[in-house]
């Protein structure tokens, strides 16, 4: 369905996307996980033809985005990160307008608008102006507008940013249903839980680079001999951290902001734990708790980048 | 096709914005009414907007007085006449508000007409009715000066006739001839020609007409900034990005925005024409086709300029600033605030470059009644300005 090959993009000599390659199969739900500024939106803008890439190429159904933009645009639906709707006209009018922009006939547009409204659960508010909607409702119409032309590929750029948990769950359900009905999904987020829930395959992206790519299981298996230990300590000093980092088998150390807790990535075959504990005792630092974390994307991300997904 | 949808959506969004709607549709009508009435002394013109009631006292049945009453005052449909048989009544009627202006015509008004002199007519007025008094006074003086010039000519002609034709005809016939000439000439004098600053075409243009045309030219100018703002807004709302990722070409998007502004400008123009004709009794000339062509070409010009502006600026605030100051300057330069006739020469020449002046003079010419040939250059010029501006704007917007 989608193939991204060696894509590069710079803004003012700053490389924002560095040699990114990945592909997404038909019917798949693909997650793009990365922190703020990782280059997710830039990547999406290039896929939908809004931003030109400097190098490489992108194909959708075998058509190059560079050469056949109009045909490709009909196949894909984009849910932009920002709400891109007209605030002073009603939800229904917005949907009708976007339907027409995709060349739907009058009758089709009307039918589809009602369908989409009920799909996102806002039939009752159809006549109200978008500006009177809550954040979550706007997000739902923002998604709905991308569904009017029944795209084969739906690309969603952080569709749940800044909304309440209830709306978020509603949106996640909606996306899951769409995927079940055969729509290929690309979903970007910096919430690991969303991506874990929705996506079959995941790409982890940081500073414009794909750090890891694979199914959830693949990725977690990569953690099989890499474990994350969370330690809560009574106090903490820089010297101690430096010592820990030098221990054989310790791959990364990360301090959780505003706490005395640290996450330590270790390689269990090297068994560095006893040495860490000894070091703490010698440095007069008491260990309050110590916990092995379940391998998940967050710990993988930590392992890969030494940083947390969310700041 | 896509362009039309974008245009229609654009018009719909503007109509949904009530405050902007009032600003663009209602305000021009109100301003026309106010300016047309208030600035009348500058234009010193007849005015169909004001109803003036005159209290008239004629001391006797002098023929000149009768002509003035029957053929001048009663022919003006904004004047009502309350006759009275006592001069003193005029003051009373004025105080009671029954009349706006009082006129007292003396006995044998026409007595000295042959010497080119007239007895003084007394005019009574209130300070709060100064405007109306000024109108009546100007009609009166215009009539008197006409009569005087005519009588002067009559005297010359009669003197001529009596010398050259005295042999051929008897003295009785000369008197007869003279009296027909006098009647003919005085009749000519009776045709009221109000004092106007400018006379173009077949008819004269009143102050209300001038300001109606001026307001049409000025308020359509605001489409330059509202059109540009509507484009910038699409960018700010990210709907522009969404339009670009839909299968719609950049050209269609920009054309759509252009057509939206054009559509709104046309609606605004039509409403203004209908409103001023209906409520202010403005006569926009007899040729509707010319009026629509001129209005349409002007709408194309402002819509094109709006796309050019959209290509030049990025910030909403810049657009607001331009709409606050730039449009006013253009409107002033184009004669929408002060009549063009009052401009000093260098300003007149300067104002030739602003398209709103072409539109304003075009409207005035149509009101006065001209043939197509005279307004065609302005129509074509406006149209070309619009298309050229739009193309330049498009090029700039596409490379963004
Ligand atoms: N038009 C632009 N001009 C200059 N720099 C840009 C532009 N667009 C994006 N960038 C830069 O590219 C980098 C990646 O931005 P991008 O929006 O793709 O990140 P993101 O992964 O979507 O982040 P977020 O989770 O915050 O949405 C950022 O450093 C950003 O400042
Ligand atoms: Mg983003």
TrEMBL record, chain A:
InterPro entries reported in the protein's UniProt record: AAA+_ATPase, ABC_transporter-like_ATP-bd, ABC_transporter-like_CS, P-loop_NTPase
Domain of life the protein comes from: Bacteria
Signal peptide: none
The keyword Nucleotide-binding belongs to this UniProt entry's keyword annotation: yes
PANTHER family: LINEARMYCIN RESISTANCE ATP-BINDING PROTEIN LNRL
Keyword Ribonucleoprotein recorded: no
Name of the protein in question: ABC transporter ATP-binding protein
UniProt xrefs under Pfam families: ABC_tran (PF00005)
GO molecular-function terms, A-Z: ATP binding; ATP hydrolysis activity
Gene3D superfamilies documented for this protein: P-loop containing nucleotide triphosphate hydrolases (3.40.50.300)
Keywords in alphabetical order: ATP-binding, Nucleotide-binding
Domain ABC transporter per the UniProt entry, residue ranges: 2-232
UniProtKB/TrEMBL annotation, chain B:
Pfam families membership: ABC2_membrane_3
Membrane topology (UniProt): Multi-pass membrane protein
Transmembrane segments annotated in the record for this chain: 20-39, 210-232, 253-279, 291-313, 320-340, 375-395
Subcellular location: Cell membrane
A GO molecular-function annotation: ABC-type transporter activity
Residue intervals of the ABC-2 type transporter transmembrane domain: 19-394
Major location category of this protein: membrane
Name of the protein described by the UniProt record: ABC transporter permease
Organism: Peribacillus psychrosaccharolyticus
Taxonomic lineage from the root: Bacteria, Bacillati, Bacillota, Bacilli, Bacillales
């Amino acid at each position: 369905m989608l193939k991204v090959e060696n894509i590069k993009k710079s803004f003012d000599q700053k490389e924002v996307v560095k040699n990114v390659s990945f592909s997404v199969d038909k019917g798949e739900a693909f997650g793009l996980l990365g922190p703020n500024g990782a280059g997710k939106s830039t990547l999406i803008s290039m896929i939908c033809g809004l931003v030109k890439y400097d190098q490489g190429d992108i194909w959708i159904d075998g058509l190059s985005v560079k050469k056949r933009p109009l045909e490709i645009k009909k196949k894909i639906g984009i849910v932009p990160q920002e709400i891109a709707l007209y605030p002073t006209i009603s939800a229904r009018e917005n949907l009708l307008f976007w339907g027409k922009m995709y060349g739907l006939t009058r009758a089709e547009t009307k039918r589809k608008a009602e369908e989409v409204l009920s799909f996102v659960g806002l039939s009752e508010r159809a006549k109200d102006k978008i500006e009177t909607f809550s954040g979550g409702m706007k997000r739902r119409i923002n998604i709905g507008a991308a569904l009017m032309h029944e795209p084969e590929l739906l690309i969603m750029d952080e569709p749940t940013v800044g909304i309440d948990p209830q709306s978020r769950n509603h949106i996640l359900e909606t996306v899951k249903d769409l995927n079940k009905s055969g729509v290929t999904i690309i979903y970007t987020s910096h919430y690991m839980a969303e991506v874990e829930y929705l996506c079959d395959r995941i790409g982890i992206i940081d500073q414009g680079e794909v750090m890891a790519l694979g199914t959830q299981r693949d990725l977690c298996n990569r953690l099989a001999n890499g474990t994350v230990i969370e330690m809560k300590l009574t106090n903490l000093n820089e010297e101690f951290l430096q010592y820990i980092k030098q221990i054989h088998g310790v791959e990364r150390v990360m301090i959780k902001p505003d706490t005395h807790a640290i996450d330590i990535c270790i390689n269990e075959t090297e068994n560095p734990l006893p040495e860490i504990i000894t070091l703490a005792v010698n440095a007069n630092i008491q260990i309050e708790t110590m916990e092995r974390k379940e391998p998940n994307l967050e710990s993988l991300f930590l392992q890969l980048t030494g940083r947390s997904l969310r700041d | 096709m896509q362009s039309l949808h974008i245009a229609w959506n654009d018009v719909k969004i503007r109509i949904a914005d009530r405050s902007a709607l009032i600003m663009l549709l209602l305000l021009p009508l109100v301003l026309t009414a106010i300016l047309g009435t208030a600035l009348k002394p500058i234009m010193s013109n007849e005015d169909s907007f004001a109803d003036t009631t005159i209290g008239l006292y004629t001391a006797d049945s002098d023929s000149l007085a009768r002509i003035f009453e029957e053929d001048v005052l009663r022919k003006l449909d904004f004047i009502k006449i309350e006759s009275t048989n006592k001069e003193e009544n005029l003051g009373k009627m004025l105080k009671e508000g029954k009349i706006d202006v009082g006129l007292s015509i003396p006995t044998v008004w026409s007595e000295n007409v042959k010497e080119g002199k007239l007895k003084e007519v007394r005019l009574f007025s209130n300070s709060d009715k100064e405007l109306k008094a000024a109108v009546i006074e100007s009609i009166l003086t215009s009539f008197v000066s006409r009569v005087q010039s005519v009588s002067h000519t009559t005297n010359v002609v009669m003197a001529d006739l009596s010398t050259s034709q005295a042999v051929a005809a008897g003295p009785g016939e000369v008197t007869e001839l003279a009296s027909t000439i006098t009647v003919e000439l005085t009749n000519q004098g009776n045709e009221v020609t109000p004092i106007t600053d400018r006379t173009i075409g077949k008819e004269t243009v009143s102050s209300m007409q001038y300001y109606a045309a001026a307001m049409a030219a000025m308020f359509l100018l605001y489409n330059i900034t509202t059109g540009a703002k509507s484009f910038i807004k699409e960018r700010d709302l990210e709907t522009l990005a969404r339009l670009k990722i839909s299968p719609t070409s950049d050209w269609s998007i920009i054309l759509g925005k252009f057509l939206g502004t054009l559509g709104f400008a046309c609606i605004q123009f039509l409403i203004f024409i209908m409103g001023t004709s209906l409520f202010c009794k403005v006569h926009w000339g007899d040729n509707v086709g010319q009026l629509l062509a001129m209005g349409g070409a002007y709408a194309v010009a402002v819509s094109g300029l709006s796309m050019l502006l959209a290509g030049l600026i990025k910030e909403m605030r810049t657009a607001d600033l331009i709409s606050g100051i730039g449009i006013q300057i253009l409107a002033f330069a184009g004669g929408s605030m002060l009549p063009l006739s009052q401009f000093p020469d260098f300003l007149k020449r300067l104002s030739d470059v602003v398209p709103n002046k072409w539109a304003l003079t075009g409207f005035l010419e149509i009101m006065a009644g001209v043939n197509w040939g005279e307004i065609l250059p302005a129509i074509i010029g406006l149209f070309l300005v619009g298309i050229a501006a739009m193309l330049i704007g498009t090029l700039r917007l596409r490379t963004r």
